[in-house]
Amino acid sequence: MISDDKKSPATAKSESPDEVSRLKKELEIQKQVAFAAGLFQGDITIRTLLESLAEGVVIIDSTGTIVLINHKTEELFGFNKQEILGRHLSTLIPDRFLKVHNDQVTDYFEKPRIRPMGIGRELNARHKQGHEFPVEISLSHLETDGGKFAMAFVTDITLRKEAESSLKSRNEELDAFAHTVAHDLRGSLTPLIGYCELLITPDIALKDRQIQDSLNAVCRISHKMATVIDELLLLSRVSREDVNVSLLDMEAIVDDAVMRLREEHTNTNIDISIAEKFPKSYGYAPWVEEVWYNYISNAIKYGGDPPIIEIGGELGDDGFAWFWVQDNGQGVADEEMPHLFTPYLPRKNSYDGHGLGLSIVKRIVEKLNGDVWVERASGNGTKFCFTLPIADSTNSKT
Q1: Residue 228's domain spans which residues?
Q2: Which residues make beta-bridge pairs with 272?
Q3: How confident is the model at residue 7 (pLDDT cuts 50, 70, 90)?
Q4: Of 177, 199, 232, 269, whose CB is crowded by the most CB atoms within 10 A?
């Protein structure tokens, strides 16, 4: 920062050599700042241009001292002109980059040219408050009677980086879903083709019972494939649609999901215990039914023999109600729990069919401003949980 000390070296004979050197340096900085101000701001056209740019402009001399900035730079970095003029450029650079950057400044003044800075590297700047943000910088130069100056045009690319990160995440997610769907469909098609070929092979004499068993298998596998397609369509709707949330009749929603599953399963030994009351919450009923359907279906599939399932919910103290489905199966390995809601990850235990279904559950609940997780149940088994808001506007969209 420029000092307000009015003493000059000529009048500072009583000062120490170090103090005289400091005063000389400050005077040189003041001269450079004053020269830059006159050079770049003396002409109203140039001054208007600098202040109208959407980019921050930082002008430094060959020592790396900041001699001029525009208003956009003040906005980007949080400094005003009085705080930053006369300070070294390192003020705006994260400490870990200082050595490399200082070498680059020296190199640039030896061979000045118009070019982008940091090609192929991530560039970060430092705000007055200490936090960093990604930037894109272009360099230009000017030779004057007062020496060489470098001009850095600085653009905050935080929003662009966030968009790129989001796009990358979406692409990775789509790739994972594509693998999941292909894996599930191929896993069903292979036995389906086998049964069909068996049924139409004239050289094989099948008994009536074998024919019936084969046809039952064809129907079962076909239903599984249809379920995969339905889940994919549901995922597509959840990703692109906005819905009106409303107060849920959770008891009726759970009953509908359980009824669907009872119709699909011939096992009459399934023991399902449902809470009499559920906390009031907000959501979109068709989607929430799919959450229950997936959770309960997995509990039946991976529960004990026979499956014993508990369904319940309670009111939280954080503005959310939380709900769960608990089974009596062998449980999930601790290292796999954080990844169960991620599509198409290999499983070490019997929980190998969750990829698409649970990833859809996660998407639905997060779209409804809730959360999902899994935990080990007391005793044996696993408890799959989700939350929904308990207070919202029935007319709001999500």
Answers
A1: 159-241
A2: 309
A3: very low
A4: 177
